[in-house]
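Reference record
================
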Amino acid sequence: MQVNPGELDKKIQIVKLIQEKNENGFYTEQKEKIVRSCFAKRTTTSGTEANKSGTEFSETKQRFLVRYSSKTIDTDMYVRYCGKLYNIVYINDYSGKEYIEIWTELKEMVENG
């Protein structure tokens, strides 16, 4: 399958959340470490709303296609896009080692208006 490089027009960051300990051995707030900044093609694969335990949730699944890099990306990392963190659920080498396909999901609470 051919990929048009011009479609890689969404700026994303691959981030890892790191929790450090202070000098007393207590965990501090989580910090983000940017593993990679790049451009991606974003595709929405599904979106649902559900009511669980009396709270409404929205779930959006996105697919991000990025150029291949030797930097390791794994499912313990997140994609930051438009100020939101998406959980990485699956990573696939796409078209040999030219591109990487990153499947993500975003779960958030929906406020009742």
